[in-house]
Amino acid sequence: MCQLFHRLESGEWQALALAGETLSLIGESASVAVGSAAASPPSHAPVLRRLASPSGDAWLLLAPESSPVRVNGRPLVTGLWALSHRDAVQLGAAPPLFFSAERVAVIEPFAGGPDPVFCPRCKTVVAAGSPAARCPSCSTVFHQSEALPCFDYGEISGEVCPICGESTALDGELRWTPAEV
Ligand SMILES: [Zn+2]
Ligand SMILES: [Zn+2]
């Protein structure tokens, strides 16, 4: 799930998970109101709209011409922007918000597919419905259960995905924050 980071007064960054289909960016401080919560956003309020994509979710930023919104320091000339990881979205003089497309690994029953999927760790089939984890970076599917902890494999794998080197932590913590920008 994608996130929008905003800075708290304490200086810390807080991630807001982008849920729902449409979000409005409103207010001087570019606070984010979710869907219907923004019952009457100002007409120049930029809107985030979810796009379903095979690799997860993607978000479009839509803004009318009169909107004072900028992305990565530039005005939105076309009124439309497909957000990508680490984009800075700024509304007027408000501090920027940062878009993050980082996904975290979770253990879920494997959905299955038309062809058998083999776990790259143990080389056996990942059966539909069996507990599995998908690498958030390369999307490879592994078993992940007490009997077959193929994804996080602990110290043996150095706690990284053997395919792409992404962290296999299952703590739900985001690795990237705008503090790195
Ligand atoms: Zn396996
Ligand atoms: Zn991977």
Polypeptide structure, described:
The mean pLDDT is 84. This protein is elongated. Strand 5 and strand 6 form a beta hairpin. It folds into two domains: 98 residues, Sandwich (Tumour Suppressor Smad4); 78 residues, Herpes Virus-1, CATH 3.30.40. The chain is built from no helices and 14 strands. The chain has a six-stranded antiparallel β-sheet with strand order 2-1-11-10-7-8, with no helix packed on it. Helix content is 0%, strand content 33%. It starts with a strand and ends in a 38-residue tail after the last strand. It has 181 residues and is mostly beta strands. The site of one zinc ion has 8 residues, from loops.
List strands and helices in order, with pairings.
Elements: E1 3-7, E2 13-17, E3 22-26, E4 31-34, E5 47-53, E6 56-62, E7 69-71, E8 74-75, E9 80-82, E10 88-91, E11 97-100, E12 107-109, E13 131-134, E14 141-143
Antiparallel strand pairs: 1-2, 1-11, 3-4, 3-5, 5-6, 6-9, 7-8, 7-10, 10-11, 12-13, 13-14
Residues 135, 137-138, 140, 161, 163-164, 166 line the site of one zinc ion.
Overall strand count: 14
The SSE string, one letter per element, is EEEEEEEEEEEEEE
CATH class of the largest domain: Mainly Beta
- CATH second-level architecture of the largest domain: Sandwich
Uncertain regions spanning at least 5 consecutive residues:
none
Overall mean pLDDT score? 84
Strand order of the largest sheet: 2-1-11-10-7-8
CATH fold-level name of the largest domain? Tumour Suppressor Smad4
What is the CA-based Rg, rounded?
19 Å
Whole-number tally of structural domains: 2
Give the termini separation.
21 Å
Going by helix content, strand content and strand pairing, the class is mainly beta
Summarize the biggest pleated sheet.
6 strands, antiparallel
- Principal-axis shape equals elongated
- As a percent range, the share of strand residues is 25-35%
Total of DSSP H or I helical runs spanning 4+ residues: 0
The helix content, as a percent range, equals: under 10%
